[in-house]
Amino acid sequence: MNSLSPLAGKVALVTGGSRGIGAAIVKRLARDGADVVFSYSHAKDQADAVVASVESLGRRAVAVRADQAVSADVERLVTQAHGTFGRLDILVNSAGVFVTGMVGDPAADIAAFDRQIDINIKGVATAVRAAAPLLGDGGRIVSIGTTGADRIAFPGVADYIATKAAVSAYTRGWSRDLGPRGITVNLVQPGAINTDMNPETAGHADALRAMTSLGRYGQPDDIAAAVAFLAGPDAGYITGATLTVDGGQIA
Q1: Beta strands in 200-246 (DSSP E)
Q2: What does the pLDDT read at residue 213?
Q3: How far is the C-alpha of 251 from the C-alpha of 248, rounded, in Å?
Q4: Is-contact 43 95, C-beta < 8 A?
Q5: CB within 8 Å of 22: residues ≥ 6 apart
């Protein structure tokens, strides 16, 4: 295997790959040699731009519109990813939504609460269940969590954190289920990362920067690098693990 292309010959599926952390993951996996299928919900122009970026690296990419909250969409996405390139080696669960709210708030948007659960928990579980029989032995599953699953520093985020904590528990359990086939299942927990949902120019950004050991926000490429490592050949004996990438935010 070319040391510069550790994922040569591999096929990856990334949910929520049209922007932010997901887009960075798609591009990094392609740079490491993988062909990539990724989902997007609405922004076709952004998805097309990611496809073009991957193709400029000499890899193949396919963008599939899918609603992560709809199980049938997720199942179709996984089946299409496998069928497009004839195999599936890597699944990255990156799609997610961030809905805040204080417990007991009479004005809480319950529909948004339900959709957050559908996307952040059920969507991930559906993707893994659909992918498990299609992944080759020695495959990789990586999900994106949050440092909040270890330490909640602010009020109003319990619902979101709970969804990510559920994926953390699933990760450990799935590692047991799939371990006999050599399939690893791991979680990457980002801290403050510069994305549309949490820009480094936001009003709260200075407070988050001050919480880190490095005194700065992370970038989507920082998370993509961690995912690429866990998806690669050097991480074959790492499973059921959580890799925190937060600049020391919860140190």
Answers
A1: 242-245
A2: 96
A3: 5
A4: no
A5: 14, 15, 16, 38, 92, 94, 95
d(CA 9, CA 48): 23
61, 68, 55, 2: which is closest to 32 by C-alpha? 2
What is the mean pLDDT for each group of 10 consecutive residues in the chain (251 residues)? 81 97 98 98 96 98 98 98 98 96 93 97 98 98 96 92 98 98 98 91 91 96 98 98 97 92
Per the DSSP assignment, residues forming a β-bridge with 36 are: 12, 61
Tokens at 211, concatenated:
């919480």
Q: What global pTM score does this model have?
A: 0.95
pLDDT for 111: 96
| Contact (Cβ atoms closer than 8 angstroms) between residue 61 and residue 31 | no
Active site residue 160: yes
Residue 164: predicted pLDDT:
97
Residue 49, judged by CB atoms within 10 A of its CB (0-12, 13-18, 19+), counts as middle
Is the Cβ–Cβ distance between 231 and 12 less than 8 Å? yes
The DSSP secondary-structure symbol of 10 reads: -
